[in-house]
Write a structure and sequence with these properties.
It catalyses: 2-(N(omega)-L-arginino)succinate = fumarate + L-arginine. It is an enzyme of class 4 (lyase). Belongs to the lyase 1 family. Argininosuccinate lyase subfamily. About 60% of the residues lie in helices and about 5% in strands. With about 475 residues, it is mainly α. It has three domains: about 90 residues, Fumarase C, Chain B, domain 1 (Orthogonal Bundle); about 240 residues, Up-down Bundle (Fumarase C, Chain A, domain 2), CATH 1.20.200.10; about 100 residues, Fumarase/aspartase (C-terminal domain) (Ribonucleotide Reductase Protein R1, domain 1, Orthogonal Bundle), CATH 1.10.40.30. Strands 1-2 form a two-stranded antiparallel sheet. The chain has a two-stranded parallel sheet with strand order 3-4. Helix 3 packs across helix 6, helix 4 packs across helix 5 and helix 7 runs antiparallel to helix 10. The structure holds arginine. The site of arginine has 9 residues, from helix 6.
């Protein structure tokens, strides 16, 4: 902030006309948003250029004024990007800072830019433009992560690991199949993100303060210049609702919930107790006291950051709750949660997209783990059913076999035929085809099943959707 912010009093020139005393110095700082909304500068300038272009077309500005304004705004943008711009708290927000700088540069024409608009439609336009840009970046990172998951799933289509329910060994699955489960979660997240983008892409510009404006504006023109699908329908709604930001944060919360689940599994799998995967050193850190430690910090942090994104969703919902139409200053509080949700989601996706392709599976450990815990017990029951045993009876037979295995320390596939036949004389030599892990996964050979061939087919289908 510039030196002038240290002043104890000031009269805001943009709206100070009806005031008889300067704003209290604390109130000035308390109500200012430039400390965070300066991040909207590029969108703010883009919106102003579109507005000035339209004003010239409808005859409210001359072409010379328009050209001066556009050149001036481009100069302001260059100053900001070169780090030469002095943001001033006494000018309250990004909009008035830029307008003041423009007027300083080009004189009286700068004061005409705000004709037929208000900061209320201006800020609503800026946030939508900002969020649309952010969504495009996030969508790119999400795509990178999803592609990485498909590549890894293809590489690991034949790798066998234990599948869990209640975190207890349930049935063998392929690692590729497990990774495709993550892919599906992200695929739905991506759909929600696209929905959010489609719904927000309407131009509020022209709603002015709340009721529209008396100038002969062309809202369709500014909408088109800014890449919006069309102008919004209702001026009161346009300046007041922030549901698009809430919708983005709800996408973000669900996405982070999914990433937190994947993170949790990565943390478990890298532990000595599981030993299913290795993460390269560059995604881990050490301990300052325990020399042997290699901690999976990246997934742990992603898991932790889910909390702050959930917090932002609650902030925005609560901010909007019970607000009367139309614009209220409450809405200035929309930016910090939204910005932080955008930053956090973008960084978490980037970390995951970088990390996933670098995962190395420890196939032997996964295989050994899948062999423990009687993971093919259901296969034995299904085998008996195919041979005519009612399912409930088959369940009982397998239960007894498992009890025997627990007593003797043998997995089902390690028992002799005679041992198995103690529990049912229906069991024959061919039972060993289904008791192996390979046989178990290969048998689940239908859409959505864990068979390696199904994983490969699912990867191919998924690639066409990206
Ligand atoms: N800084 C304000 C915001 O972020 C801009 C709109 C202010 N409008 C007003 N009438 N005070 O919402």
């Amino acid at each position: 902030m510039s030196q002038s912010d240290q002043n104890t009093e000031s009269t805001n020139q943009s709206w100070g006309g009806r005031f008889s005393e300067p704003t209290d110095a604390f109130v000035e700082r308390f109500t200012a948003s430039v400390g965070f909304d300066y991040r909207l500068y590029a969108q703010d300038i883009k919106g102003s250029i579109a507005h000035a272009t339209m004003l010239a077309k409808v005859g409210v500005l001359t072409e010379a004024e328009r050209d001066l304004i556009i050149k001036g705004l481009e100069g302001v943008r260059a100053d900001i990007e070169a780090g030469k711009f002095e943001w001033s708290v006494s000018l309250e927000d990004v909009h008035m800072n830029i307008e003041a700088a423009l007027t300083k540069r080009i004189g009286i024409a700068g004061k005409k830019l705000h004709t037929g608009r208000s900061r209320n439609d201006q800020v609503a336009t800026d946030i939508r433009l900002y969020l649309r840009d952010a969504i495009d970046v996030i969508s790119g990172e999400l795509n990178r992560l999803q592609t990485g998951l498909l590549d890894l799933a293809e590489r690991e289509a034949d790798t066998i690991m234990p599948g869990f329910t209640h975190l207890q060994t349930a049935q063998p699955v392929t690692f590729g199949h497990h990774l495709l489960a993550w892919f599906e979660m992200l695929q739905r997240d991506h759909g929600r993100l696209r929905d959010c983008r489609a719904r927000l892409n309407q131009s509020p510009l022209g709603a002015a303060a709340l009721a529209g404006t008396t100038y002969p504006i062309d809202r369709a023109m500014t909408a088109e210049l800014l890449g919006f699908d069309k102008p919004t329908e209702n001026s009161l709604d346009s300046v007041s609702d922030r549901d698009f930001a809430i919708e983005f944060c709800s996408f973000a919360s669900i996405l982070m919930t999914h990433l937190s689940r994947a993170s949790e599994e990565l943390v478990l799998w890298t532990s000595a107790q599981f030993g299913f995967i290795d993460l390269p050193d560059r995604f881990c850190t050490g301990s300052s006291i325990m020399p042997q430690k290699k901690n999976p910090d990246v997934p742990e942090l992603v898991r932790g950051k889910t909390g702050r994104v959930n917090g932002h969703l609650i902030s925005l919902l609560t901010l909007m709750k019970s607000q009367p139409l139309a614009y209220n200053k409450d809405n200035q509080e929309d930016k910090e949660p939204l910005f932080d949700a955008v930053d956090t989601v973008r960084d978490c996706l980037r970390a995951f997209a970088d990390m996933i392709p670098a995962i190395e599976s420890r196939k032997d450990n996964m295989y050994e783990a899948a062999k423990r815990g009687f993971s093919t017990a259901t296969d034995l029951a299904d085998y008996l059913v195919r041979k005519g045993t009612p399912f409930r009876d088959a369940h009982e037979v397998v239960g007894k076999s498992v009890a025997y295995g627990l007593k003797t320390g043998k997995d089902l596939s390690e028992m002799t035929l005679e041992e198995l036949q103690q529990f049912s004389d229906t069991i024959e030599q061919d039972v060993f085809d289904v008791l192996t892990l390979e046989g178990s996964v290969a048998a689940r050979n239908h859409i959505g099943g864990t068979a390696p061939d199904q994983v490969r087919a699912a990867v191919q289908r998924a690639r066409t959707t990206l």
